[in-house]
Design brief:
It is a single chain. This protein is mainly alpha-helical. The longest helix has 23 residues, at 197-219. A hairpin with a 5-residue loop joins strand 3 and strand 4 (64-66). Strands 1-2 form a two-stranded parallel sheet. The termini are far apart. It is 47% helix and 9% strand.
């Protein structure tokens, strides 16, 4: 078990029982920090009581380890208000599947708050407002580097505001007064400050390196792991859905939905079972480590022998994004102009064969 983190007693209550208890005014929960809700469409309970702890660790889909000394008692009242809002939404006709999606988005917001120095967000309206401002700026930053779609950012923003306001027992307008919210048309995303020429050259050089090296991997069917060499750092491309992870990204590995312990992202290899056995708990931890490594080796062999494997398609998407940014930089177009371009008959192409596929004239 990770150092300092512990299991705690939880109280699992079926959502139907909560609704029935609310209708008959018989809900009796002694400690909201232990509450986990079992929804009909979820295999595992949603542990909302864990949100009362500032330090949480997700070890699987249902279990949350916590640092017992990191509990913030004022959050218990917020969880009580949160539960009332859940019951109100469902009894008002909201689909459970839609509600669960919102709750998961809000859980990601809480994780961001506690990991980004904004753990005070549940204290009062003023601190919640400060947190919302910071969260919107965080979303804008992701949008500017194309790490998030505008729809995802707007959904995250709206869910955070809605459920934070409900937890505090205030109207949403109290949290967003004077703020410029994100909108789906990108109009609210502030223009970035013009970067220095050296920064632009560095970014374009990285795009070029990504495009050339990943194209080489795909066209010449080079195996993974593969060391992608960039100007200021090199990263290993791994045969897994999480294709890469920098040293900075690995610091938050415990918060990943899937930890991918079998993959040594820093050294570009599949780990040995004994190297990762300590990440697992219980009497079967040796078997779990062996199974993880075996699965990783099997997937690696599949990726390296299947030219159109979905992992290689992930890599293609990175190459495509790099080409797209180079195209915009060299033409001066914006994304809307590029999207509306049509093929010109002035361009003549011939059929050619590159490795495993034929490139046909379009």
């Amino acid at each position: 078990m990770p150092n300092g983190f512990n299991n705690r007693k939880i109280t699992v209550i079926n959502i139907k029982d909560l609704i029935q208890g609310a209708l008959s005014d018989t809900i009796n929960i002694f400690d909201y920090s232990t509450l986990a809700i079992k929804f009909e469409s979820l295999a595992n309970p949603l542990d909302i009581g864990a949100w009362c702890y500032q330090n949480r660790l997700r070890v699987n889909h249902s279990q949350r380890l916590v640092r017992l000394d990191s509990i913030l008692d004022h959050r218990k009242v917020r969880i009580e208000n949160f539960l009332d809002k859940i019951i109100l939404e469902l009894t008002s006709g909201k689909k459970e599947s839609s509600l669960i999606q919102e709750l998961k988005n809000f859980e990601r917001f809480i994780d961001w708050c506690d990991n980004s120095g904004h753990s005070h967000f549940f204290c009062n309206e003023k601190k919640a407002n400060t947190t919302v401002i910071a969260f919107i700026e965080y979303q804008k930053g992701l949008l500017r580097v194309h790490s998030r779609s505008i729809l995802t950012a707007v959904t995250a923003q709206n869910n955070a505001i809605k459920w934070l306001a409900s937890s505090l027992g205030v109207d949403q307008s109290m949290l967003i007064e004077g703020l410029v919210l994100l909108k789906k048309n990108m109009s609210s995303v502030n223009s970035t400050v013009s970067p220095l020429n050296k920064d632009v050259m560095h970014q374009l050089k990285c795009y070029e390196q990504i495009l050339n090296q990943i194209s080489d991997i795909l066209i010449n069917q080079k195996p993974l792991p593969y060391l992608l060499e960039l100007t200021n750092q090199s990263i290993w491309l791994m045969p897994q859905k999480k294709v890469f992870a920098t040293e900075a990204m690995l610091k938050s590995r415990q918060n990943w939905p899937n930890k991918y312990y079998a993959y040594d992202y820093l050294n570009g290899r599949i780990s040995q079972p004994e190297e990762i056995e300590h990440f697992y708990d219980g009497t079967l931890k040796k078997y779990a480590a062996q199974t993880a490594v075996k699965s990783a080796i099997t997937l690696k062999n599949q990726v390296n022998t299947t030219p159109r494997h979905y992992i290689r398609i992930f890599l293609f998407n990175y190459a495509q994004a790099a080409f797209y940014n180079l195209f915009l930089a060299n033409t001066g177009m914006n994304s809307k102009q590029a999207f509306e371009m049509t093929w010109s008959e002035e361009f003549i192409t011939k059929n050619t064969c590159q490795g495993f596929k034929a490139i046909k004239q379009r």
